[in-house]
Design goal:
Elements lengths: L3 H14 L11 E3 L5 E3 L7 E6 L4 H17 L3 E5 L6 H8 L5 E3 L8 H8 L6 E5 L5 E6 L4 H10 L6
Parallel strand pairs: 3-4, 4-5
Antiparallel strand pairs: 1-2, 3-6, 6-7
Protein name: Thio-disulfide isomerase/thioredoxin
Pfam families: AhpC-TSA (PF00578)
Keywords: Isomerase
């Protein structure tokens, strides 16, 4: 029991640090795989933003379920690697298995890990669901469950099939 308290405290502090419910997400300028600039204002919304890393076992376990939700709902899932060592080639190769995801890559203005820092994420995966106004309606530190994610999408104004 004593070993759990420090982890629980760290988890709660992380939640307190992240971009909060009802807040607009921070602005950013990244590129989609075609080289098109994506910003807070130009991204399609409602949307899901997932911070991940190529080496993360939880991300690997979570992505097939997220891909299925993305296919069913047609909501854009923007994925941003918070690992500075994840090159464009690594990200694009990894994302071939997840065609509904939109990987966001470094631009002249921003690097993905810098955007993660702006969101104040402390680990991966961290998932944010945003509404039409780019306000956070839900976020998940760690694995996002299917039902909770679908509920969050309803809160964001998505009409589910």
């Amino acid at each position: 029991m004593r070993k759990i308290w420090p982890l629980a405290l760290l988890f709660l502090l992380g939640l307190a640090q992240a971009v909060g419910l009802g807040e607009r997400i921070p602005d950013f300028a990244l590129l989609d795989p075609a080289g098109k600039p994506i910003t807070r204002d130009t991204m399609k919304k409602p949307a899901v933003i997932v911070f991940w890393a190529s080496w993360c076992p939880v991300c690997k376990a979570e992505f097939p379920g997220l891909q299925k939700v993305a296919e069913e709902t047609k909501v854009p899932f923007y994925v941003i690697s918070r690992e500075p060592k994840d090159t464009k080639e690594v990200v694009l190769t990894y994302m071939k298995a997840y065609p509904r995801f939109i990987p966001l890559l470094a631009s002249a203005k921003d690097k993905p890990h810098e955007v993660a820092a702006r969101f104040k994420v402390l680990g991966q995966p961290w998932t944010f669901v945003v509404d039409q106004g780019a306000r956070v309606v839900a976020f998940f530190a760690g694995r996002a469950g299917r039902e909770a994610l679908l509920d969050a999408l309803l809160l964001a104004g998505v009409e589910l099939p």
